[in-house]
Each structure stands twice: as structure tokens, then as C-alpha cells.
Amino acid sequence: MSPIDVQQSLANLRLERDAIVLYDGLSTIEKDPRRASAFRTIAANERRHAEVWATKLRELGAPLPPPSGPTFRIRAILALARLLGTHAVRDMVQALEGDEEDLYTAQSSPEVASIAADEREHAEIWKRLSAREVAGDGARSEIGAAAERHGRDHAQVRRRASQIASSERWHRAGRSGTLRAVIFGVSDGLVSNLALVMGVAGASRGEGTFILLAGVAGLLAGAFSMAAGEYISMQSQRELFERQIALERAELEAMPAEEQAELATVYRAKGFTESEAAIIAERMFRDPELALDTLVREELGLDPDQLGSALGAAGGSFVAFAIGAAIPVLPYLFGTGSGSFIAAIALSLSALFAVGAGVSLLTGRSLLFSGARQVVIGAAAAIITYLVGLAIGVSVS
């Protein structure tokens, strides 16, 4: 583990100051009073963390730097939250919390242990907030109280089966983030149609009419292909999950005692004693629907409320791909000469960098690194297809 020196303390202080700006902003944007209260609770913890590092710097004899503006990542998250709501940035904030936890885990200091525990608790609060979206009104007061009881024993605030399942299956970047799907959909459309346009440009020696025709055809073919593939994939997955849930319901009706024993075994594996697991399972089975919901989550790893929409996935894929694929074609709508060729390249490279920057919001990597990586990948695909098209055009002519 790395020792805590001046530079590390400064980096930690900047990290906590960014977190303060983030959660203060989220608490202001959020209209739900319980979610806003949870954000204010986390912001207060981040202020305490910042004071820890400020004190550490004073002890090391280093000057305390004045607060600077937040990073691009924080500004982008807040901008998206204002535009789409705080629910839409959940994956990015959870990724940020995970990055903070990893950073503190790699450090060695008495101050770090409690801060790392707080960061883990912040992730728990986000999980409870996420669980509330599917748990209904009955879980709301419990989740709101969870944020206020920050740092205490968590067992009481994780009683509901939906919350337990959500906690177990949570991953840092989430599994169904809309923003993530949009970013990668745009990236697919942009890279594939840029490569197609450059290939046709090489083969046709820059004939704008052919390039425009190929670009529009590639946009439509790719978008419809993406939408059809996403629809079939999502619908098949949904039908499979619905079949599994139906089989679980049939087993519950046919042999409830065996299913109750299986659920008790699941809780035993989670660390409960035999008597505790039996009590929990017995209480769950007092309500058949709750028992089914819990079995589906615990045994099958499914969330019955979030099986996904095939039409929504298809529509989203179509639009995202089409947006990306349209970028290399746009200049040819206004001209067919070499100027359009150069404009298409410049516009596409700029868009590739923007897509890479968007990816950095999810991965936590450097904006410049992610943007440059995306540009290199897209440019390589464009150059290769251009050279192949050029070779084919020469051969045909």
C-alpha cells in the first residue's frame, strides 16, 4: 500500500471536494425529498472526509490549496442530471464511488479505513435508492431512514427481498444503464458508417453521389439490423425469463415446503444461522407472491420487475446507431467535392473523440485517453477500408 504523503493527501482532498460539489448539486436537482436527503447526507460525509485531508496537510506542513472547479467528469454528470434527472446518472455516480473505494483501498493510513467504509456505505445508499425504484411505497420510509442511519448496522435496512436482490446483483457500472447503451450505440454507428463511407470514397475516387448513396444505405441497413437483432435478443431473453418464473411458480404451488427449505438454505449460505434462516424463509412464505418474488431473485438471479422491453431496446438501438451513422454522411448532403470529404473526416474524428469522452464518464479513465483511444480505433478502421476501397477501385478500373 502507498504511504500518505503530501501529494497523496492533495489528491485525496481534490477527490473529496469534487464529491462535495457532486452531491450538493444532486441534492439541489433532486425533487424527491427522500433522495435529496440521502444526497445531503453523503455530501456531509464528504465534507468530513475533506476536513480529514485538510488536517493531514496541515500536519505535514503543506499549504492548503483553495478549492478549484470540479473536474469535467463531475460537471458532465451534473449536466446530465439536470437534463435527464438523477436516476439517469446512477451508473456513473456508482462508478465514481467505486473508483474512490479502490483508491482508498490502495492507501495505508489510519484515516483511510473509516473513509473507505464510508465510501462503501455510500454505494449501499445508492443501492437502496435503486431498490426503492422497484420496491414501491412500502420501502420508501425505510430507505430514507437508511441514509440517516449512515454508519450503523445495515441488517435492519436490508429486510425486503427486493432490496437484498438488488444489493447482490449491483455492479459498479450497472447492467442496464441507458446512457451506456446510447454511447455505445452511437459509437457502433459512427465507426461502421465512417469505415463504409471511406471505403466507397477510395473505390469511387471521391465521387460524392456514390458516397452519399452508400452512406445512407449503410445508415438504414445498420440501424434496422441493430434494431432487429436487439428486438429478437431481448424478446427471446424475456420469454426465457418468463418461462423460468412460471416454472418457479409451479414448483412453489406443488411443493411449498421444499421451496421454503431451499430458500432457508440460500440464507444459510449468506451467513445466517440455521434458526435465523428458517425464520426468514417462514416469514417470506406467509405471502405467496413475496415468496415467489424472493425465490426468483435468489435462486434465478432475476428481477421480475426489470425483464426489459424488446420494443424499447430496439427503438433505442435504432436511434443511437442512426445518430452515429449520420455524422460521416452529413457533409455530402451539402456538397460532393473534396471539401465534403475533408469535412466528413474532421466531423467524424471530432465525434469519435466526443464518444470516447462520454465513455470516460462510465469508466473513470482520463477524458483525453478515452477520447484519443476512440479516435485511433475509428481512424484505423477508416484508413484500412479506404485503402481497400482504393485498391478495389484501381483493380476494377
Poorly predicted tracts of residues: 134-177
Please count the beta strands (DSSP E, at least 2 residues each): 2
Radius of gyration: 26 Å
Number of distinct helices = 15
| Helix/strand/pairing category | mainly alpha
Distance between the termini: 64 Å
Strand order in the largest sheet? 1-2
Rounded average pLDDT: 77
> Largest beta sheet, briefly?
2 strands, parallel
- Taken in chain order, the helices and strands follow as EHHHHEHHHHHHHHHHH
Q: Tell me, briefly, the overall form.
A: flat
Q: How helix-rich are the residues, as a percent range?
A: over 70%
Could you characterize what this model shows?
This protein is mainly alpha-helical and 397 residues long. It folds into 3 domains: 168 residues; 141 residues, no CATH class; 63 residues, no CATH class. It is built from 15 helices and 2 strands. It has a two-stranded parallel ribbon. The protein is flat. It starts with a strand and ends with a helix. About 11% of the residues have low confidence.
How would you briefly describe this protein structure?
The protein has 397 residues and is mainly alpha-helical. 78% of the residues lie in helices and 1% in strands. It is built from 15 helices and 2 strands.
Provide the descriptors you would attach to this structure in a database record.
single chain; 397 residues; mainly alpha; two-stranded parallel ribbon; 15 helices; 1% strand
